[in-house]
Amino acid sequence: MEQLAYSEQSIFELSYALNTFYVLSFAILVMWMAAGFTMLEAGLVRSKNTVEILTKNIALYSIASLSYLLIGYQIMYPGSAVTSWFPGFELPSFGDNSAEKAFAEGTQMSTMGGIFFQLVFVATAMSIVSGAVAERMKLWAFLIFCFFMTSFIYPVQGYWKWGMGFLETAGFYDFAGSGVVHLCGAVAAFAGVLLLGPRKGKYGPGKAIKAFPGANIPLATLGTLILWMGWFGFNGGSLLKMSDVESANSVAMILLNTNTAAAAGGIGALVFSKIRYGRADLTMILNGVLGGLVAITADPLSPSPLLALVFGLIAGVFIMISIVTFDHMKIDDPVGAISVHGVGGILGLLVVPLSNAKASLLSQLLGVGVIVLWTFLVSFLVWYLIKKTLGIRINDEYEYEGADQEECGLEAYPEFTKS
Predict the structure, then answer these.
(1) 2-408: which CATH topology?
(2) Model's pTM, two decimal places?
(3) Which of 196, 58, 195, 211 is nearest to 137 (CA)?
(4) pLDDT in tens, 136-174
(5) Alpha helices (H) in 329-395, listed in sequence order
């Protein structure tokens, strides 16, 4: 019996180590998405705003890492929640299980590994906001909002689903975060954009819209490919285990479907842009790829690869239509983040019942409604308070000259003329 017990614990410890290594490795891929967002946004803004957008992205990741570690995680995953609506708050504890304790409790991986994996997700949500408010928002106003977003706004709605709150018990299905991460980030961005207003000169009388081409399209393309790669960690890591045949096969299916939806999203945008405008619009194709990725994130495991292809194709077309529609509504989003992550997130959540019997359209609509309502109301309030105190928009002169010199005292391309 002693030899059998030792053998069981040895197998358990090997499984524990494998699961932890798998989650940490995939978390690093998700962290690498910060580079993707940074490159994408830096490529799609004008040269005079490049340094400022780079500063935002490196600073937001740093702030998100600390605020979520010290505050947000304790809200999102409380040891004992007050109610299914209100998680409460406990002081952070980062102690991990000993081998004996983990074996006795059946813990499948390191607690600290789980914290790190969730931490890189919240940084992704905040990165969505960065692109939507680019080229006219004050750096410090953005960073203050970043603190509130990552320590409170995101964790509360995250608790309602992933922390076993009321959305989880209501049957809302969101495997890797089409709603919890992407829709939340897009709605927070939308609230900020409404208060911020469009860039100067973007919209003229009537339906006139002026294009502001990005300064570095190769960089934006590289950023998209980095995000595509990082998304394998985003979706694949969300299974949280890989130590048996079933889970290994599930991870393989998740990665296959993730890649398929992304590719189909790009093709959908490519074909639609050719039909609609008579040309292949690269920026739309990039956003089509990202739209396919966002849409499949709600459930990358249940669909067949062919169904994942259909979902991605639809997302690529919908994202393109959404970007154009927002522009006609004079809602200025320089990188298309609200469309990609908001419309793509809603679409992904609503198609889940087509392949997953665990979800219903009613429960998915409930989840969408709750996330949108909570995130918009609280984000709007925070943005409004910042606007009334510090202010959220740089002045007209600095906007014309570019945010780089005023906010950072540095130019990204000093040898070139400002555009």
Answers:
(1) Ammonium transporter fold (1.10.3430)
(2) 0.95
(3) 196
(4) 999 999 999 999 999 999 999 999 999 989 999 999 999
(5) 337, 344-350, 361-389
